[in-house]
Description:
By secondary structure, the protein is an alpha/beta fold. The protein is built from 14 helices and 11 strands.
Amino acid sequence: MRDSKLKRFCLLFLVGAICFILVGQTGISYAGTHKELKLVMSTYIPASYKDIHPWQQGFVDYVNKHGKGIVQIDFYHSSTLLKLREAIPGLQAGTADIILHQDSAIQGTYPIFGVTELPFIYDNYDDYVMDCRIGSPLFNLINKELKKKNMFMIAAAANPFEHIWTLKPVRKPEDMKGLKLRCSGRIESLTLKALGTAPVSMPSAEVFMAMKRGTVDGLMSYPGTVGGRRLDDVVKYCTLGNFGAYMTPIFTTRDRWDSWPQDVKDVMIEAGREYNFRNALNGRIYLLETYFPRFNRKIEMIKLTKEEIAAFKKATKPVYDTWLKQVDKKVGEKALAIVQNR
């Protein structure tokens, strides 16, 4: 009797061990273990931003294609669900499950994002793209900080560097004194103040008429805003340089992310990797092949010398110190080390 029980125990143990090994080798499939998750995604960024919109739509299309039976997204762009200032409250209230946002608009609430917006912190765009990748040291540090406020960054895209677009030529910091320039975030505002300029906050949709009326003398912006809003019809000069840079992250809340099944997360992460890569590659190609040829016909593009760049760097160095006071100093120093020490 005892031998029979022992043999049965051994057989069950063997079967269990084999199943465990097989599961460990093949991985657990979550597909079919839960109902298809229906999510709502919102962004205020309009379809007229041809360098961004195809890739924000591409994130949704990737999820909906590869997530059939797992997760599907209902996408509202161009402020059709939530406007700029409604995005974060709407996400937290559950109006949207996911939002695509620009970090310059929320740097006051989440100051960690200021590190990539600092003037001239990047010498080249490729380094910036690498820092925006899912799983990079900076990406992970940002998410660690966001967790403190129940936020999670699914993915991020690196917008091209911000330039100075004006009605008069600018080659040195002194040329900017007294100008009124539109900008979109706190770090950009600090940068302009350091250069003797009066920063003006207004929606990008209002800049065209503001320049026509003389309310502002120009703006600090990445090229997509100028192209997407047809501002090249009023701008006369562009001073090229990394005066700032901001991400376009895709957010959800941390508790919502933690509640999603692993297969949903897997689809999102793969879509996020594609979003980062396509936005950086194809977005840049669009700027080079479409916007910049258009700009070159209408705008005088000013390329700074090394000496002129050094003068702007020196003038804007206080912005770094101010930003470090806005974040936990140790966190800020760690972020700077990641970006600067390659």
